[in-house]
C-alpha cells in the first residue's frame, strides 16, 4: 500500500512539474509578445516624433474648424427653429443661452 502511495505522489509531482514547465513556456511566450508590442509602440512613437509639426497639425486643424462650424450651425438652427415655433421670443432664457453659446462659438472660431 505504501508503495502505491509513493508512486501516486511521484506521479503527482511529475504532473505538477509538467504543468509548471508548460506555464513557464506560456509566460515566456507572452513576455516575448509584450516585448514585441512595446518595441512596435516605441517605433511608432519615434516615427510620430519625427514628423514635422506643420504637416501633422494641418489635418486636425481643418477638422477642428469644420467641427466648430458644424457646432455653430447646429446652435443657429436650433435657435431659429425655436423662434419660428412662436412659442419662444428673444427674451426667453433658452434663446438667450443659445445666443450666448453662438457668440462664444463665433469668438472661438475667430481665435483659431
TrEMBL record:
Residues 41-52 have a biased composition (Basic and acidic residues). One of its GO terms (biological process) is interkinetic nuclear migration. Residues 41-69 are annotated as: Disordered. One of its GO terms (cellular component) is centrosome. This is Centrosomal protein of 162 kDa. It comes from Oncorhynchus mykiss (Rainbow trout).
